[in-house]
Design a protein that fits this description.
Layout (H helix, E strand, L loop, with lengths): L2 E4 L2 E5 L15 H10 L5 H5 L3 H4 L7 H14 L18 H21 L8 H18 L3 E3 L2 H24 L4 H17 L1 E3 L7
Helix pairs in contact: 5-6, 5-7, 6-8, 7-8
């Protein structure tokens, strides 16, 4: 364990992730701490298990604040060393599993943006693309379409996910060119749709 100095106090060891409370994270405040607790994030290890996008879905925590929290933990808290490789052998997720996981995250993020507190500020074009992305993700999750190139599908899904996360943060700050973002989403969505084949019937483009 490493040490950290506090004014007026002797050096203290920084515990491993998961051995301390989120209260050690600066500038969180009691309201955010209660919100984290209600979300089941009671240890630093719980928080570190999330991405910035996932953490930003918690009420009161913006995407920027989520990154600050994760950066602080990564910088100031020592992570436990990894066990020997022979003890941690895992099977990498298949492309289909990745597609399902990312499609679910993408659909949730699109729904959150459509129903969020800033939804009234969304343009017609942006709302339309979000709705179509939700429909496409739903077809994937219901296994009603087959993906001809799962690896490339993962690429398009990730790109749309990142765009929506950024758009959500920028919309909150009033710094977003919705026409540009909606066109980029439309482009990725159409490319993904070209890789989808209806299992029961031919879909319309």
């Amino acid at each position: 364990m490493s040490e950290i100095e506090h004014p007026g106090h002797p050096a203290q060891e920084i515990p491993l992730v998961g051995e301390d409370s989120p209260e050690r994270i600066p500038n969180l405040g009691p309201i955010r701490l209660r919100t984290l607790n209600k979300a089941g994030l009671r240890t630093l290890n719980d928080i570190m298990s999330l991405s910035a996008e996932e953490l930003s879905r918690i009420p009161g925590i913006t995407f920027v604040k989520a990154k600050q929290i994760l950066d602080y933990i990564q910088e100031h808290v020592k992570k436990p060393s990894s066990p020997p490789m022979e003890e941690t052998a895992t099977v990498a997720p298949s492309n289909r599993e990745l597609v399902t996981t990312i499609a679910r995250e993408l659909m949730n993020q699109a729904q959150d943006l459509l129903k969020g507190e800033n939804s009234s500020e969304l343009s017609h074009g942006m709302s339309r693309q979000l709705a179509r992305i939700i429909i496409l993700c739903d077809l994937i999750l219901l296994d009603q379409v087959a993906l001809r190139k799962p690896r490339k599908s993962v690429k398009y899904l990730k790109a749309m996910r990142e765009m929506i996360v950024s758009a959500s943060a920028e919309l909150h700050d009033g710094k977003i060119k919705q026409s540009k973002v909606s066109m980029a989403l439309r482009d990725r969505r159409r490319k993904l749709k070209e890789l989808c084949v209806r299992k029961n019937s031919e879909g319309k483009n």
